[in-house]
Amino acid sequence: MNGLNKMMAVWSGCLVLGGFLAGVAWAASAQPNSYGYLVQMPFEVPPQPEYQAPESATPAPEQLSEQDKARLEGLVPLLEGKQELWVMGEFVHYGKHSVPYLIQALSRPGDRLRYNAIETLFMIKDPAAVPALLERATDVKEIPRVRAHAIRVATRIDPLQVVPAIGAMVKDENSTIRSTAVFEARHVPLKEILPIIISVIPDPEKYVAITARDSFWVLTKFAGSLHDWEISTPEDRSRWVKEWWDWLEEFKQKDQQAPSPQSVPPAPGNLNVS
């Protein structure tokens, strides 16, 4: 009896479902042209918040008072710590007045302090700071990370001052320093930088030599013959570099204008540019 009751219950459910679906089908066929539409109900625009006019920043003083000097002097040690970003902003606010204090910071203990001082000088962009940056970049006792950042910032501020420093750095024992120096050479629009770049093409480190080749190409659009740089040896590159010296001699004879790195074309795919 229990089995029969279950079967009757299932049969009754099927009849009910079938009747429901039949009713839905009849309703759809009885009104074939009825459609539903979405309607935007009217509403009131919420009131807009009222904003106060922004206050203009306090301009930097024309001349530093004794209090300002003491403040800047006290901010130097804070270039390394939890408030370093705020401190960098304070130096930027004082602008060129901050440069002497940041130059002093370049010789202070603390790698991060010196690095942040260099970064702050980059934001101020005062060419008067370039000699101190170059001195830091060529100091072999300085850590490579700070030296590399110093030559980068000096080149971005005034590339016309950096040729002697790059010439010294491409001979450094540290390959990272050599690579950074010859990379920054591509931003120097002077003829004097070209022989310095060529001298790095036979570098013992392949990635340094390729960086030199690419920097020369960026300035002159000359890439030399097609060579397999990826498997090249220092001996191979010492032979290949003659092409660059020959090109430079021809360039000098034509007495052309100084190279300009302002527009850099896309690198050819067959040059293995890295």
Give the overall form.
extended
- The run of helices and strands is HHHHHHHHHHHH
Q: Over all CA atoms, what is the radius of gyration?
A: 35 Å
Model regions low in confidence, pLDDT < 50 over at least 5 residues = 262-274
Note down, in words, how this protein is organized:
By secondary structure, the protein is mainly alpha-helical. It has two domains: about 65-160, Leucine-rich Repeat Variant, CATH 1.25.10; about 160-274, no CATH class. Helices cover about 55% and strands about 0% of the residues. It has twelve helices and no strands. Helix 3 (about 85-95) packs parallel to helix 5 (about 110-125). The longest helix is centred in the first third of the chain and has 29 residues, at about 1-30. The radius of gyration is 35 Å and the shape is extended. The model is unreliable at about 260-274 (pLDDT under 50).
Please describe the structure with a list of short key phrases separated by commas or semicolons.
disordered C terminus, mainly alpha, 2 domains, 12 helices, 274 residues, Leucine-rich Repeat Variant
Question: In a few lines, what is going on in this structure?
Answer:
The chain is mainly α. Helices cover 55% and strands 0% of the residues.
